[in-house]
Amino acid sequence: MVVASVDNLADERSKAQFDVGAMKIVWAGSKHVFDVTDRMARIVASDPEFRKDNRTTLGRKELFKNTLRKMAHVVKRANELRLTEEEASKLRFFVDEPGYLDLHWGMFVPAIKGQGTEEQQEKWLPLASRMEIIGCYAQTELGHGSNVQGLETTATFDPKTDEFIIHSPSLTSYKWWPGGLGKVSTHVVVYARLVSGGQEHGIYGFIVQLRSLDDHTPLPGIIIGDIGTKFGSGAYNTMDNGFVCFNRVRIPRNHMLMRFCQVTREGNVCLSDVPKQMVYGTMVYVRQTIVSDASWALSRAVCIAVRYSAIRRQFGSQDRGIETQVLDYKTQQSRLFPLLASAYAFRFVGEWLKWLYADVTERLQANDFSTLPEAHACTAGLKSLTTSVTADAIEECRKLCGGHGYLCSSGLPELFAVYVPACTYEGDNVVLLLQVARFLVKTVSRLAAGKKPVGTTTYMGNAEHLMQCKSSASSPEDWLKPSVVLEAFEARAFRLAVACARDISKFSTPEAGFAELSIDLVEAAIAHCEVIVVSRFIEKVQQDIPGDGVKEQLQILCFIYALHLIHKHSGEFLSTGCITPEQATLANEQLRTLYGQVRPNAVSLVDAFNYTDHYLGSALGRYDGNVYATLYAQALRDPLNDTVVPDGYEEFIRPVLKQTMRLSRL
Ligand SMILES: CCCCCCCCCCC/C=C/C(=O)SCCNC(=O)CCNC(=O)[C@H](O)C(C)(C)COP(=O)(O)OP(=O)(O)OC[C@H]1O[C@@H](n2cnc3c(N)ncnc32)[C@H](O)[C@@H]1OP(=O)(O)O
Ligand SMILES: Cc1cc2nc3c(=O)[nH]c(=O)nc-3n(C[C@H](O)[C@H](O)[C@H](O)COP(=O)(O)OP(=O)(O)OC[C@H]3O[C@@H](n4cnc5c(N)ncnc54)[C@H](O)[C@@H]3O)c2cc1C
């Protein structure tokens, strides 16, 4: 049985029609990134300190202490190996355990870099880099998260002492959720309403010390703790998401992050000549990183499901002969291959978004704020789209693995539990899509005023054509033409956005229209985000891509990505008149053909992710395909199997059996 499993994956690998090594480089982004990633993944996988297969069986306290041990080991190894920032960040990534380091490096440091003055950066960044202080990011409160302008915490300037007084005026104003806050962080960037001279001046970030650097006890006026156990076993419970109440805590004036707004010694508030949304900059940065993370989480789930589907056999045999690999069932392919294609799509759009973010950052530094709205819309929209799809996809992969997918040893339940809050943190996905919709409606109304759209909305400049065009697809092969596919996506997105803008104008106020039509607006926003992903994927496959057969495989995946969306949203494509029912049928026919073309390459396409068995953490997704023996070995290691007769037998099983025996004798 074991030998047959191993043979299956070896057979699968022998069928590949492309150069897997070259695809690994494409997936990584470059040879350099591949080398760094590969080396860091192996360092983590070979270090017993980073073992993670017992995580779901540990209680919260044990689990948390275990994470503290691992985080300390990460810092130690990074120092010992003299890792660069890039290497250290990959090392932390492959440790694959949410912990305070994520928030320290991922939000606290970026908040200071983005919103601190040069002097503030000079003071705080070395302390943070050497980890002489540990920081987190506290924006959300018990009563408000999405509505940042509704935050209640105050930072009142006291000109007498040249200090700010940080205060939580109500229970609902307690900071609630920040990762790393509950038990670890010594410092925090806290977002509060700036009050000076009796007037409010908006929300800004303030650096506050939370705990003593000598004995870690909370400083006076600070009530702090963990908010409690979260969804799933193991999963995000390794993180100390916390609460904090500030009771008139005093901090020096220069602890306010003053890059965009300065408070003088006299308490005068001087706003720089920049948009006030610059204070939301850390969120834009993190949303961009979340899009890249989505492709990692999705590809990990898909890797497990594809390998297992090649191993798993059900039905199809005559006379108890060899059964069919479940990967050969068209229904399995139609559920799995679009997810495989989405993993590649999100990888490429993530890389593009990184470029967009770098570009806008450069412009902002030169006081050019013109691309800020587009950067906000793209990061918000793509964060929303990719995390929602990924969360659903992990659950779909669990189902694709049948009963064994439900076991923690499949790796999928914990991956789902750890991933699903991505739909909420850094902005609830619906709230973020409504931001995209606001941007789209504005773009459409600017069009009417003769303004030329730029960036990702450039396609809307072709307004007349997009409103009238009818798809020219007359055969399944036509759906392999980039121009045919793009036109359908652009026309659908534009028509939905125009319909929303038109309908909003029928209400008494734009706000009333926006609120009433928010369901349609969310759909228009998704359609626009899908234009971005599809067009970036098409752009990618039109480039020169080295490696035998690599480009061909990516083209197949690109069209699977696009055509499965046409199928999924066929209602919208049809109701907007972008395609006809016959053309939808042709697209489906082509999709089926493409599934057949991916089939022999599926295992190699997930091998190209280059994941170690440690990172995958799955009995079902092992590289060698030795699924059943691993499942059995892991079952035997379960704490319930420590003893043959369970604890509790004497107390709770024997009395029941005795009672039943007595009753049956009656
Ligand atoms: C091994 C596994 C490891 C896992 C590790 C994972 C690590 C991840 C850790 C996750 C940590 C999580 C952290 C957090 O969650 S931090 C808190 C995040 N909070 C949010 O995201 C709040 C969401 N809310 C908002 O962003 C705003 O409140 C919202 C945008 C929704 C509304 O803001 P506001 O009321 O001010 O704005 P309006 O809607 O009225 O818009 C006014 C104009 O401002 C523009 N705008 C809005 N936001 C931005 C922005 N960020 N940048 C630029 N411009 C922005 C908006 O478009 C409006 O413009 P116009 O007036 O021109 O239309
Ligand atoms: C694991 C995790 C880690 C986190 N880490 C941090 C952290 O480190 N620092 C930090 O500051 N915060 C953190 N957060 C908090 C997070 O940022 C917020 O939970 C998030 O921004 C959503 O806000 P909310 O909880 O207020 O949701 P709500 O806004 O209350 O959402 C509830 C529902 O209302 C809907 N809704 C809200 N507003 C609208 C609207 N205008 N129109 C239509 N529907 C609407 C939403 O779609 C949602 O369905 C974390 C959260 C989680 C789950």
Written overview of the protein:
This protein is α+β, with helices and mostly antiparallel strands and 666 residues long. It has a domain at 110-273: Butyryl-CoA Dehydrogenase, subunit A, domain 2 (Beta Barrel). The protein is 54% helix and 9% strand. The chain is built from 23 helices and 11 strands. Strands 1, 2, 3, 5, 6 and 9 form a 6-stranded mixed beta sheet that branches. The chain has a 3-stranded antiparallel beta sheet with strand order 4-8-7, with no helix packed on it. Strand 10 (261-263) and strand 11 form a beta hairpin. Helix 8 (281-311) runs parallel beside helix 10. The protein is globular. The structure holds ligand L4XM7KOE and flavin-adenine dinucleotide. Ligand L4XM7KOE is lined by residues 96-98, 102, 106, 137, 139-140, 146-149, 179, 277, 280, 283-284, 372-373, 376, 425-427, 431, 435, 438, 442.
Short description:
The protein is α+β, with helices and mostly antiparallel strands. It has 23 helices and eleven strands.
| Strand residue content | 5-15%
Task: Note the overall shape.
Answer: globular
Given helix and strand content, the structural type is alpha+beta
Bound ligands, named by name, code or SMILES:
ligand L4XM7KOE, flavin-adenine dinucleotide
CATH architectural type of the domain at 110-273? Beta Barrel
**How many helices does DSSP assign?**
23
How far is the first residue's CA from the last residue's CA?
49 Å
Cα gyration radius (Å): 27 Å
Helix content: 40-55%
Main pleated-sheet profile: 6 strands, mixed
What name goes with the CATH superfamily of the domain at 110-273? Butyryl-CoA Dehydrogenase, subunit A, domain 2
What is the CATH fold-level name of the domain at 110-273? Answer: Butyryl-CoA Dehydrogenase, subunit A, domain 2
Ranges with pLDDT <50 over ≥5 residues? none
CATH C-level label of the domain at 110-273 = Mainly Beta
- Mean pLDDT level: 96
Beta strand count:
11
Subcellular location: Peroxisome
GO cellular component, one term: peroxisome
Main location: other
Organism: Spirodela intermedia (Intermediate duckweed)
